[in-house]
Amino acid sequence: MNRPEDRPADEKAQPSWQRTPCPQWCARVHEEGDHPEDRYHQSEPTFFPAIVSTHATTPIMDSFEGIDMLARVCQYVDDVVAWVAIEPAERREPRLVLTVESAQLLERGLAAQLARHSES
Ligand SMILES: [Zn+2]
């Protein structure tokens, strides 16, 4: 018998609630019993170390905390909008959620800031 988990990823069976195939970037395994809130596509995360501050302190460095962050693309299965989530790997906050267009603006803005920084 050919079980779904034995098949290559591109031939895996879709659950009955999933009406369209996964986008190419989706790395999430979808199951028939997934809760409706868990029915979303998700890319492989990109991990990076960061320093976050979750509350205002003076000086600001007093609230700095080093954590592992990740960025990934998410899209609910019946939605046309994809989101880019930047969030801690091990907890829920602080979280930044951007549309793909906003993430592209951020990408260009960061590149410009870093280019200015390397000029100095
Ligand atoms: Zn998917």
Give the SSE map.
Blueprint: E1 40-42, E2 46-53, E3 64-76, E4 83-88, E5 96-99, H1 100-119
Antiparallel strand pairs: 1-3, 2-3, 3-4, 4-5
Descriptive terms for the model:
120 residues, 28% strand, 17% helix, 5-stranded antiparallel beta sheet, DUF6907, disordered N terminus
Give your account of this protein's structure.
The chain is an alpha+beta fold. It has one helix at 100-119; strands at 40-42, 46-53, 64-76, 83-88, 96-99. It has one domain. A hairpin with a 6-residue loop joins strand 3 and strand 4. The longest helix is centred in the last third of the chain and has 20 residues, at 100-119. Residues 1-7 have low confidence and may be disordered. The structure holds zinc ion. Residues 1-13 have a biased composition (Basic and acidic residues). It holds the Pfam family DUF6907. Residues 1-21 are annotated as: Disordered.
Largest sheet: 5 strands, antiparallel
> Based on CA inertia axes, which overall geometry fits?
elongated
Overall tally of domains:
1
Bound molecules: zinc ion
Ranges where pLDDT stays below 50 over 5 or more residues in a row are 1-7
Order of helices and strands: EEEEEH
Mean pLDDT: 90
Distance between the termini: 64 Å
**Tally of separate helices:** 1
- How many strand segments? 5
Structural category is alpha+beta
Percent strand equals: 25-35%
Radius of gyration: 19 Å
* Helical percentage: 10-25%
Region (Disordered): 1-21
Biased composition (Basic and acidic residues): 1-13
In short:
The protein is α+β, with helices and mostly antiparallel strands and 120 residues long.
